[in-house]
Design goal:
5 strands, single chain
Length: 83
């Protein structure tokens, strides 16, 4: 056993942490309980990234975009999307 003092691991400055928050959801047009993808907006850079949760991790052929997820039957629809 050593008597050396252990230093704390280095921490990142607050500005270096860029957290992505969900801002839009792409839902299955036939079953709005199924989320096909999410748009994340990062807090520091304001960059938006889309993550697809489909089987092949690619853009869904058809989906509805919503900005708020409701726990009732219908989510607030923003725009239907079709490629």
């Amino acid at each position: 056993m050593s008597d050396e003092k252990k230093s704390a691991p280095p921490s990142l400055p607050h500005q270096a942490i860029d957290i992505g928050l969900p801002v839009e959801w792409m839902l299955d047009p036939h079953d709005q309980k199924v989320v096909l993808g999410v748009v994340y907006e990062f807090s520091q850079s304001k960059v938006r990234k889309i993550v697809w949760y489909t089987a092949n991790k690619r853009r869904a052929k058809s989906f509805k975009v919503v900005r708020e997820l409701g726990f009732s039957d219908g989510a607030q629809e923003i725009s239907p999307e079709t490629p």
